[in-house]
Each structure stands twice: as structure tokens, then as C-alpha cells.
Amino acid sequence: MSGASNLTLGFVPLNDAAPLVAAQERGFFAAENLSVRLSREVSWATVRDKVAAGALDGAHMLAPIALACTLGAGGDPQPMIAPMALNRSGAAFTLSRRLTAAFAPGETRRAALARLIAERRAQGEPPLVFAVVFPYSMHNYLLRYWLAEAGIDPDLDVRITVAPPSRMASRLAAGELDGFCAGEPWNAVAEDENLGEVAVRAFEVWRDGPEKVFGVTADWAQRNPEVLQAVLRALLKGAAWADDPENRAQLAQILSRPEYVDASIGSIARSLPTTSFHHNAANAPLPVQAGWLLSQMMRWGHAPRELDIRGMAEAVYRLDVYNQAAADLGWPMVSPPEAADGFADGRVFDLGAARAYAESFALGRMVKG
Amino acid sequence: MRVLVVDPDPARAALVVEGLAGVHPLEVRHATVFDENEVAVFGPDVVVVAADSPDRDTLESLRDASVLNPRPVVMFVDRSEPGLAEAAVRAGVAAYIVDGLAPTRVRDILEVAMSRFQLMHQLRQDLEKAKADLASRKTVERAKALLMKERGLEEEQAYKLLRKLSMDTGRPLGAVASDLLAFAGVLKGDGA
Lengths: 369, 192
Known about the structure:
heterodimer, A: alpha/beta, D-Maltodextrin-Binding Protein, domain 2, 2 domains, globular, B: alpha/beta, Rossmann fold, Arc Repressor Mutant, subunit A, 7 helices, elongated
């Protein structure tokens, strides 16, 4: 690489933009001779469009967006790659206080929710409304997984809508939402304002499940392999810095600034420990995790049932590109596991039997041939 | 024409009103944030939203939701973002208006957006139907093969039996075939 590279990277105001923010604020980009402008974006659709159009070189991205773009779900296919994961876990499902007030003591939250939903249906009341942050998001698939496990059909028994994370708390307060699934600090903000209560956290459904990735177009990655490696090295250092409990107070202070997350330091600091930015090889983009996401997209009719899940997972989640950056930093390389466990229901996802897994659920929208 | 403009900046709603002067009947409503209930009540023919609006994700999700009647979405794009508009169109936005555009062009753009949306909507429905037809035909073929094997019927007889079941129960041939396959699976011990 000759001379400094000027890059614009996008992020959405959330705690898990931390690896990008830390790489900028701690000078890890500068150390790689990169001149980076971080661009605060207000919607995932804009992030996706700007990356596709080249207005952003790369971005903080919901893991399923990179897959959905490559698949062409909802539009023309635009091949993207995820050469690094930014974090694991961190999302949560918050229910409004109005709803949790009707829960009986000793009842699990999900059992109580299933009971309320059945009662509402019997009385002819409209379904409960839950919001997620984007149709193609871990939040949507986790919420669906968790509801369906209790026999609640996410398409028929409740209504799942989409709202911007920063507006979830106010919509909960206005009574327009009964619950929402979003990243932090927005669950903590709703709790701190006494509007809602976390019913379940992502890691309680799938320990070490995926969340955000760093995404670029496949074309950009091919044209800028050295710049990409430099960005990944800086982001990996940023992720390691953000993950260190000693840095948490300082990180919360930086993230709370108006140009980043623009929320209270207290809510951010309280919710940072629920996210893993680096430990447990959190930054390795594992194809088996992409495969699980694709199996859920297939299950709910967001991806065609003929899809080659392994082929797509390995084409988008580029563990080889990650491993090169890890090796350059002297960090351990990661070999791709074939199966993923850590699900609360005890099931194991096997990348080699992804379609059978997608078909195996009692509730789903797959067309069975 | 009913138009909903979702934008904190009232100037853009004013531009739309100016551009649509002469259209009768016309109702342009301006909202600073997107509200699903308002859309359900107002029933706009087209929604205009700023490219940098946080409500874009919500609008995008409505496009895929079959329960709600989807609406064509037109986006206001800043001139300083080349290529963004094209990317948005590839991802499903019906049309776009570049900031600084003469009001006289607004009407054309909204009309193009509505007709393009209709076309895409029709294509999607046709595709869904074609897929469902194909799936149903495959199911019927498999049910026929099962009857031929288990009951020793000729292909024609197997088909007639399925058709009779369909007529007797008043259900589509594909549904009857699918039930038959499911029950055969249960009898063989699948899913037990």
C-alpha cells in the first residue's frame, strides 16, 4: 500500500459499533495508515444501499443483511462478504411493563406470554405487536425461534413490525408496541425509563450466537485486498480493546457522545457486559453461523428452499480473509466448525444437514414439496 | 391522488404539493415520522420518504408484508450521494427524486413510481403463483407414484382416484395429494 487510504465506514448508533469507534478513537486505523471517516447512519436500508453504491467502503452490518443482499432477497442480488464478525450476543427482547404487570408470580415469562396471547385471541382482541429492527436481522430470527418454540406462531399469533432501535422505547411508552427485540443500549434505555423489562437475552436462546458483522461488497474486497486487511487488523485491535473490562468505562463515555450512540452513559455502561466483542474468538466469521441464519431464512420463507446453504454461507462468511488478518497480528487462526450448539433447546445445527434442519420445525413457512 | 410525505422538513412536502398542482382530487399529507395506523386510515397511493429517514426500514418491511397492502415508495435523495438512488431502486424503492429538482417533474416521477410498482407487484404475484402451481404438481406426481406402488394401480387409475378424493372432499387436488403423502408417512412411522 502506498500513501494513506481514505475510507468512509458506516455505523448505526448501537453499542456494537464499538470496534469501529474504538479503532478510530484509539488510533488503530491511523496506525495502519488509514484515514477513516465514520458515518453515522439512521437505517439499515441506507447502510445497505450506500455500501452497494460505493458511498460507504464498508459498514457495521446486521449479519443477515450481507446474506440477504447476496441472495437478492427483496431486490436484485448484490454480492457482499463478511470477513469479520464484530460481536456475539448483545440483543434482547423487551416487553412493555403493561404486559409484564399481567404476569403471574412463578410463571416463566414465555409461558405467561403464551397464556396472554391465547386469552387475547379468545376474547377477540387484536394481536400483540412486537418490533424488530429489520426483516433480515438476528433479532427477527431469534424472536421467531423463541416464540415458535413455545408454540406461538410469529406470523399468525402476534404481529411483528419494524422500527428504528432508537425509537423503540418511545413507541413502547406510546402503547404502539407491546415489546421489541433490538441491540443495546436500547433495551437498557427502556428499562431505565421504567417502560419495559427484558424477557430474554440473545445469549439465553443461543449462547455465542452471531450479531453484527463488518460488511463490504465482494467487488470492493477484490479490488482492495490490502486495504481490507489493514482495516481488519485495525478493527480486530478495536474489538480487543472494547472487550477489555478495564476499558469499559472509557468506552461507555466515548459511545455516549452525540456523534456516536447519543444515549446516557449509564444505560450504555450497564448494557456493555452483555456483548462479547472479542473473547471466545467472537470476531471469526464462522460459516456454520451464517448457515444457521440461512436455515432460519429458509424456514420463514425469506430464502428459497433450493438454496445451497453451505455454498452461500462459505461465500459470504470469509473465514479465510479473517484468518489472514489474525495471523498477521500473531493471533490464533480459527478452523471452521461443522456444527453449532449452545441453543437453549439443546438442538445442534449441522451445516451438512441445513435443509433438513430448516424443515424439521413444527412451525415454519417453508413450502414442502 | 393521495400522497404521504414522511420527512421532518416541510419544504419537501411543499415541493410535492407544488409539483402536483392541477391533479384532482389531490390530498398530500405531511408527517414528520411514519405511523402505520395513519397509513392504514389515510390509504396513500404513494409514500415519499427521505433517503436518510430512520423510517426507511419500516417502509421496506411493509413491502414484504402480505397482510398490509404495500405501497410504492419514492425516495428523496441528496445530490451529494451519487449512486445511492440507483442502489435503492435495485433494492426495491419504486423511484427517486433528487433534491433541487424542478417541481414540474414531481408528477411524472410519482406516476412512474406507481405504474412501476404495479408492474413489479403483478410480477411477484405471478411468480408466487407459478411456484405454488409447480409445488402442487410435484406433490400430485408423488402421491400418484405412491398409489401406483402401494395399490398396484396404473397411472391413469391413480390419477382418477386422487381426482375422486378431491371432488368428494371439495378440496384442491394438491391438498389431497399432500394429505395422502403425510398420512402415508405417519403409517410408515415417520415423525412418530
